[in-house]
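Long-time lurker, first post. I've been practising inverse folding by hand and with some scripts of my own, and I keep getting stuck on stretches where the structure tokens seem ambiguous. Below is the full token string for one chain I'm working on. Before anyone asks, I'm not after the true native sequence, just a reasonable design that respects the backbone. If someone could post their per-position residues I'd love to compare against what I wrote down in my notebook.
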């Protein structure tokens, strides 16, 4: 059995907490451990923060983030965070630890590294001027069903 949800929200810092809460609430019927839930919420925070800070850094117009979540009764959780921002010129380079296009005094360049360490799979698809989609997959250890 599969369940899915999709939300769209403004790309503003205040909505990072919203994205964390929505994803956590949606996953709760699978009865994740506290550790699994914390890892998912942290990965979502990193993906949303990257969209806000880097995806829409200097862009004008509407700035939105779309987040989609699919949960399977098998314990598989798939989260997608998408922006229509500036895109990433070199995804491979951007995924290197400590790489950041932001202010090096304020940014650690560890966003993708954190996502990779907390999720079982991470896929980043990006196109200059068209945006970025981050797809994260996690397989939960304990499943009570949906």
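-- Answer (accepted) --
I ran through it position by position. Result:
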């Amino acid at each position: 059995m599969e369940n899915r949800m999709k939300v769209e929200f403004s790309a503003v810092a205040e909505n990072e907490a919203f994205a964390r809460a929505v994803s956590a609430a949606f996953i709760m019927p699978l009865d994740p451990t506290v550790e699994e839930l914390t890892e998912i919420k942290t990965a979502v925070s990193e993906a949303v923060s990257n969209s806000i800070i880097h995806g829409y850094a200097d862009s004008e117009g509407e700035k939105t983030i779309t987040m989609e979540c699919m949960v399977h009764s098998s314990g598989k959780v798939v989260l997608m965070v998408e922006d229509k921002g500036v895109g990433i010129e070199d995804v491979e380079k951007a995924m290197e630890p400590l790489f950041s296009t932001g202010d090096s005094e304020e940014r650690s360049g560890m966003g993708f590294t954190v996502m990779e360490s907390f999720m079982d799979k991470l896929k980043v698809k990006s196109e200059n001027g068209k945006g970025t989609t981050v797809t994260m997959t996690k397989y939960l250890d304990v499943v009570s069903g949906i």
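A couple of notes from the structure itself: The chain has four helices and five strands. The CA atoms of residues 98 and 105 lie 12 Å apart. Happy to go over any region you disagree with.
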